Amino acid sequence: FREALVALLELDGFEVVGQAADGADAVALAKQVRPDVVVMDLSMPVLNGLDATRLVRDALPSTPVLVLTAFTGDELERAAMAAGATAYVAKDANLEELRAALAAAVAALADRPDPGP
Known about the structure:
Strands 1-2-3 form a 3-stranded parallel beta sheet, with helices on both faces. By secondary structure, it is mainly alpha-helical. It is built from 5 helices and 3 strands, in the order ααβαβαβα. α2 (23-33) packs parallel to α3. It has helices at 2-11, 23-33, 49-59, 74-82, 95-109, and strands at residues 38-40, 65-69, 87-90.
């Protein structure tokens, strides 16, 4: 799924600057690379996506985190948003829904303060 997502994002003009196989690596990579947007799964080994989202937002408060997950439900969505997610998208969403969520996350970049050097 991750490889297919990367291919779709790159076809849509996004530059994918990193990929992580587990939540701990996702947090470490986000801190190192400082991406414009993080796409996070909820179900990951080592550190789950909710905790990883919280840690990314703590370290990089102006970086939007889009949660893309196979799990649906209002409770999980509320938990993801409480953890700092900017958007919550189900993996079975159509490509237009994913594009819209990414566009909203990118638009949020215009409102974030400049992190400086």
